[in-house]
Design brief:
The protein is mostly helical and about 400 residues long. Among the domains are: about 45 residues; about 100 residues, Receptor-associated Protein (Up-down Bundle). It is built from 15 helices and 3 strands. It has a 3-stranded antiparallel beta sheet. β1 and β2 form a beta hairpin. α8 packs across α9 and α10 runs antiparallel to α11. The chain is elongated. About 0% of the residues have low confidence.
Length: about 400
């Protein structure tokens, strides 16, 4: 993903410019045309070295801005005045500077959506496209209110998934840390004690743990370096297109997390597509936006394939079924919505259902993993301690026999 600087004209002939995140120039052209802009110049932005003081805006801050903005537009305030009021009251100074920049661009005659597009790190393709549809249709207040609801639900879903993955990863990291600490700091104390006691031969489990401790002490730097290298390698591979596609495929087909990821993908797909269609965005543009924001390369490829088939004149049902990502029930319900002309409404109902399914799946998985992880940690720590106390028990039995 690179940053491209662009210049172009709106349908009314106004000159506009800005920046966009995209894979290539063709994607930049498609994004701009979806916003009603005809590009005249596109240039890849060169990398700048030094410190970056760009605005960092949380989802909560963006939702509050969107809701307040929708209320002001609904109350009849002019666009520039509404932006000025919100900017002057914005506590986030970085976001405030961005809002004043947007206000200046709108005052110079740029469309609101084009002004937003100049700040892709804050306003993504979905936000910009919906605002463009609201501007063109004269329903910007309605679109903004709908967008705020969408962002709140998307943030809730993301937090659920993040929590589901954070718990087992945290427990695993703690387990590894505890084991390393035992082997490096605790076991040597027992080893010295056994040596001073003059134990001739240690039990097998005890000797194994002591040997493992000696190896860990001699190679602790290599172990920590290897763990860091594994994490770096994973991030590097996931940062490549082919690597991310491979990892996403493995994750979505995993036995425990796979079903949860599929349900999440369905919920995100239906919620985003339904919101776009209900706001007046065309199906082809909506599918492209949904694909780019899917967060999973398998789903992204599937949605883009669906888009290609629809461009050839086919309905959504067959291409969706061919992706292998969407359950038959979802495909059938989308087919019914498409046939009855109520696709956006049907997508909203599917999204509601699958968001509840994600909640239930996360709760069930957490309830299953919590005792399982406790048993694993307890088994490891308990096994090490028992192995260390075996010689003491053996010596006690020998003394009792004498």
């Amino acid at each position: 993903m690179a940053v491209y600087i662009w210049q172009g004209q709106t349908r009314s002939g106004e000159a506009v410019n800005g920046e966009l995140n995209a894979e290539n120039e063709a994607e930049v052209i498609n994004k701009l045309r979806a916003q009603g802009v005809q590009p005249s110049k596109i240039k890849k932005k060169t990398r700048e070295f030094g410190f970056s003081f760009g605005a960092s805006v949380s989802v909560k801050e963006l939702v509050i801005f969107t809701r307040q903005f929708a209320t002001m537009i609904d109350a009849g305030l002019p666009l520039v005045q509404a932006i000025d009021i919100l900017a002057s009251a914005e506590p986030n100074k970085g976001f405030q500077r961005v809002l004043y920049t947007i206000k200046a661009d709108v005052e110079q005659g740029q469309p609101f959506a084009a002004a937003l597009a100049r700040h892709p790190k804050i306003f993504d393709d979905l936000f910009v496209s919906l605002c463009h549809a609201g501007e063109v249709g004269g329903i910007l207040d309605t679109i903004l209110a709908r967008l705020a609801v969408y962002m709140e639900k998307a943030a809730k879903l993301k937090a659920k998934i993040k929590g589901a993955f954070t718990y087992p990863v945290s427990i695993l990291a703690i387990s590894i840390g505890v084991v390393i600490l035992l082997l490096v700091k605790v076991i040597p104390t027992f080893e010295d004690m056994f040596a001073n006691m003059g134990s001739a031969e240690l039990p097998g489990p005890t000797q194994f743990v002591i040997d493992l401790s000696e190896w860990m002490q001699a190679n602790i730097l290599y172990v920590l370096g290897s763990l860091a290298a594994i994490v770096y390698f994973f991030k590097f591979v996931y940062g490549t297109k082919r690597g991310r596609e491979l990892i996403d495929t493995m994750m979505i087909n995993a036995p425990v997390f796979g079903p949860l990821l599929r349900k999440t993908a369905v919920a995100r797909f239906t919620r985003t597509l339904g919101t776009l269609l209900a706001s007046g965005v065309t199906l082809m543009d909506a599918l492209e936006i949904v694909a780019r924001g899917a967060g999973n390369k398998v789903v992204e490829k599937g949605v883009m394939r669906v888009r290609e088939k629809i461009a050839e004149g086919r309905t959504m049902v067959e291409p969706l079924a061919e992706t292998g990502v969407f359950p038959p029930m979802v495909v059938q319900m989308i087919g019914v919505g498409e046939a009855t002309g109520a696709l956006d409404t049907m997508l909203g109902k599917i999204a509601d259902f699958y968001e509840e399914e994600v909640d239930a799946a996360v709760d069930a998985m957490t309830a299953l993993l919590e005792p399982l992880m406790m048993v694993v940690i307890g088994g490891i720590v308990g096994g090490v301690l028992i192995a260390m106390y075996l010689p003491i028990f053996t010596m006690g039995d020998a003394i009792s026999a004498d």
